[in-house]
Fold these 3 entries.
Entry 1:
Amino acid sequence: MAQTFTAYYPSVAFAAGKNMAAIINQHPTELIKIRRIGLLNTQTAAVTGVICQLDVRLYTGSVFLNGSTAVVPTMHDSTNTMPLSGAYSHAGAVSGTLAGTFRRVFWSSDEPGISAATNDEMECFVPWNIIFDAGYADSNVQPLVLRQDQMVVVFNTVGAAGLLDTWIEFTKE
Amino acid sequence: MAEDAFTAYYVNVSFLNAGLSGPMAGIYNASPNEIIRIYRVGISNITVLAAVGNLVRLDLNVYRNSSIGDSTHITPVKHGKNVPDLEAVECFWGGVIVGNSPNTIRRVAWSCEEAIRMEAGNINSLGCLVEANIIFEVNSNDNNEQPIVLRPGEIFTILNSTSAASYLNSFIEFTREFI
């Protein structure tokens, strides 16, 4: 069993062309393996939402996030040790070479209602909003492996209203 | 099966009684001899009486080096009748956590209005579906991933962080290993 962590990015404001959640690995030998990524709508204040388009992207090369806001991942076991050269943040200027897009999803950034059943409310259910899940019962499929100078980003391409929660579950090996 | 399994079920916990920023469900490992591993957490809407519901936000929090003050304890169900009792592990709701700031692994919005009409297709009714309302589950597709591990002096909670109305049912499925 590998040391496991959850990075949680709460209430990140949508903006066009924005890093909503990212992890960078800059260690020469240690691997960060992205296992699952989920989105959630936890807004309780009224907002005039829009449709946003989110990409799960892999960047390589000279990756860094200038001026971003850091989050601290939760260790699933307090005896774990944090990755030696991992960085976890949202916002900032994304630098590096876009190496690929793993997922693209539409997201309604309106707040959920108490007794409604629209897209906004469906975004409150954890199992329905996992947008990347390595393995899916097949151990032959690799997770998304971050080697040195690689970065995964949940990137909002269009849409600028409301807030997003994102979680990224990863292991260190 | 190597470890003893339990389900803690928290029935009709009042948002009002748990209080704003109060635990709706929690496990405190106060034992020096046991390790708790949390595999699955779910919530359910079984409110049948009319309620003027709110949209609440529930946080799944982990606390290190902490303890719980006065709270209401429940007895978890053993998955096998030969499973020894928990020694000093408390399943609780309500009370105030004393110690370190929490680490949050999930937050979910939850409508606490009653789900009464069979024909009603809304978020309240969807709150009745077990599979749809599992808010934490160790990745069963991947044996490489750890569950949430509670060592001595560590706490896991579903925390009510925004408002107070109606009731919540929760379950936490966990195992115990003796150190």
Entry 2:
Amino acid sequence: MCLAIPARITAIDPTGETATVALGAVSKDCSLALIEDAAVGDYVLIHVGYALNRISEEEATQTLDLMREMGVLDDLPDALPAADPSGLTV
Amino acid sequence: MTDPAGKLHISLDPAAVTITSTRPVRAAKVFVGRDVADTVRLLPVLFNICGTAQSAAAAAAIEQALGLAPDRRIAELRRHLVDTETLREHLWRILLDWPKFLSSDPDAAAMTQAMRLTIARRTALSSGTDPFAPGASAAAPDQPAAGQAREDLAALCTERLFGVTPAAWRMRVDRLDTLAVWAADTDTVAARLVRQVIAAGQAGYGRCAVGALPDLSAADLDRHLGADAATTDDFVARPVWAAQPRETSPLTRQQDQPLVRNLATDFDNGLLPRLAAQLTEVARLLSDTPVPTAQPTPAALAPGLGLSQVQAARGLLVHRVHIRDGRIAAYAILAPTEWNFHPRGVVAAGLRHLLQQCGADRIAPLVRLFIAAVDPCIDYALDLPGSARSLPQVGDTRNAELNSEF
């Protein structure tokens, strides 16, 4: 299925072109070429190495809850803390 | 952590091409037990890449299941919205992926502009309406703004794709020689890639005998999806028609267009017709020509059952829903990627032919180009013959998707 994964920006490269995003304990790099004014702490949708757009924390939570129900996040702990400085813990 | 979006694993060796998939093809089951409103709200949240096509298919299937008469203006609005999404997806391929095959940088600036304009067009078209609410009726769209967004997209594509207006391109480029002239005279990524493929003699690469999916009736699709979960699960994962894998794609949609038809005479369903079909579809969408679609006669399906077909960016998308007492009793989604990346499908067969046409030592970039031309909407891992490269380890997500396959 066409799924873009919500993740939280934890660091931005000094060039502003790439960012590190976190989904739970997993980090990956992505390109910021398609969005503007991204900031650490923003939630973004990730698809094939690009951050597509910013989404709200509520939308990120909803999406991840659905993915957890689908069973594709089965190795990540439950619950999204209100403020998690290390990333999107799910 | 495995990627929640799943992945295709494509393995080539001289004897065989093997495609395995971890795509979550049964994802729609997450809606079972939910009420209709909740399902309509959550579906595009989950399927957020082609959310418009998914929402359009869901709305139509749910309306049929609930016995709601379709509103002609809403149907037309949904079609325009889906076509706008299709245009965006094609531009992603052409502006961001095609440059990689020319050792050029992705045209991120143009893609950002394209995304902005497709959002503007969508907003103007939907003005005052929730177009995907079952039973919705359409308010008047903001035609001037929608038209302006389309004109701006056409101007962007004139500059970054065609070198001439999309309409002029369609008129002038109708067969191999006019395509070659255009490619030689135009300095855009699209033209350079076409020029490269022609010059390298790769126009017919990847051709195979897998045929196009014919127009289908809802009743036929319902029969193939079956009444029991096991049959449905198997069909959505590995669909076949008349016992054969089939293709559904911009190539099959545009096969009666002069350029694509003429190229197919010499190159069948090989690489150059595929690239040409995607450009043709972009040009047609920019002139507000809808993506070709058979309008299936609404079938008299059982009460509580709805089945819809939408021509999404990569091919035919099918939704089937059973509703009982206002709640989802069953939900199945059949996506175009499952047709095209079937273990015996057009990609597997095309890559086998590619292996025969050029040696294993030269094949890597061609494999990636061919896969991009079919366009899987998902990341994939490639295992090539004689390569020391191994498939990415499960859990190894660092940089796995950032251009790592190119």
Entry 3:
Amino acid sequence: MKIFLNLLKTPSFLFGAGCFLLTLCLAFIFPFVYPIDTVTRVGLPYMPPSASHWLGTDHMGVDMVSLIVTGLRSSLYVGFLAGIIATGIGTLMGIYAGFKGGWQDNIITMVTNLFIVIPSFIVLILISSSLKEGRSLALIAGIIGCTTWTWSARSVRAQASSLIARDHIALARVNGTGTFGILLFHILPYLMSYVFMVFILQIASGILSEAAISMIGLGPYDSVSLGTLLNESMKNEALGDGAWWAFVPAAGLITIVVFAFYVINTSMEGVFNPRLRK
Amino acid sequence: MLKHHPTLRYILTRSLWYFLTFLMAVTLNFFLPRLGASNPVDILMTKVGAGLDTKAAQEKEEAYLKEFGLVEVDGNGTLLRTSDGRPVRTPIWKQFCNYIAMCLKGDFGTSFLNYPKKVSDIIKTALPWTFALQFPTIILGWLVGNVLGALAAYKRGIFDKVLFPFSLLLSAVPFFAFGMLLVYQFAIRWEIFPAMGGYAGGLIPGFNLAFFSSAVYHYALPFFSIFIVQAGSQAIGMRSMCIYELGTDYVKYAKGLGIRENKILYYLFRNAMLPQLTGLALSLGAMIGGALITEMIFSYPGLGMAILTAIQGNDYPLIQGCTLLITVCVLLANFTVDILIGFLDPRVRAGQRGK
């Protein structure tokens, strides 16, 4: 609780959280005041921003603000889902390996090391290119989560293994608490702040991965995301036509969201690790 | 014998480990594209099969099946057939063995898109471009980022207050988005740099001044778009690493002794550098992924562009060839760094002996 209060006193945390809240508002509250329509052609292709269409239109003549807001929602959704999957699997694997030691630890460490070296972007390309139909947002988030959990596993394992010598764990063991009981009630709570930081970084990297995979044309088929918007603008000569409104807002939003998460992460690092403070 | 040669043992275990990783990567590379259960020959046939009569289409299909190793062939190269005349399909495990054997020979099969062309030939023309773009950029970005990060940690104050948020912002920009903005500003609006390609249209790659200067001119934008983001994200890692090192006893002791600032900075840099080196190796995969997309933005004639066209045309052999090659490069880079660290880091050296 005290840590939480400390966080609220940190200006950089407030700034990051503020940025994030603003994007959340843009994604979920703004649509109540601005009619969102990603289908109807409201004007000519690549119409510049005007009073009725604040960010102009895309290559089909669809209102850009609607597309951006919808894209932001999708990107946040993919980011959070991928973050939850990656952090969930990674944390479970990490604390289990760190706590158990022995051959279980060896195997999990081996698997993590194996998958950390193989570029996850490449695996992402391979899977996405083979799944032509039904490449939904959730599926993409799942694939991203399953290819990036190794990073969480590795960092959580290191933290967990530093905890196992604590007395309260020995006590719990004497009391006959099972392995999973110890993991969930006696180790995980101590790592919560750490896991949360990992989670935040995983969301950020999930958003970036989605943008990257959509950028090369392997994004979701059924929905608009910030990455697919960039891809469409690239494919339809927005650069050459000087239609900056087709890609600058999308690129800017990705950057702002990821930046907000990075700032939150570093400010938390500063609070949890007093050494960084000055 | 290995007991007395800790370094040799270290190298051997690492080699074995990377060989295992390589096998894993090849396996993924083979099986993942086959998840979708789409048969490459069917895709190819829908493209070329139109207008052919049944017999010609069947002959063509069998030729393709043979070419991609999907059917059994006897010693003379003729198809094995079942009793009703259909070709015998090769079981997947056998295809996998053939695939590994072919890969080891450096043969990645035939491209669908540019049909009779070999994947290895396409890769051969693309690889130098990717290498020339990414290798210097990543290394330079890493070095500059580390120096800036170390300075920020050491000086703190206003320098750090400006540099740190700025680096954080830079590392949040996707490589390709930054590339797009650069193209828009410098190539489209100001027309200072060319927007796309690796060299001017009329030139033929060769060792002459015209080609070379054109290549350098086209190099500038993609270089900066990767370099700046790269330097920014490395600076952040180095900064926190150095702040950690600054709190250690040896720095306090050195300060107490009154050792010159430059000397302390040198020690600090050296010690904080090693984890950064590991970091570089580990994140190399992610960087190359990002940089590949940068190539696509600039239509740079490297592997990224090859992958993009391959994806758009469902050219699986080409996708697989490129991905495998990139994976192997990343593995090799990791291996090199691992071995280097084994020699550079006294702690790892001691660990080898200590057992």
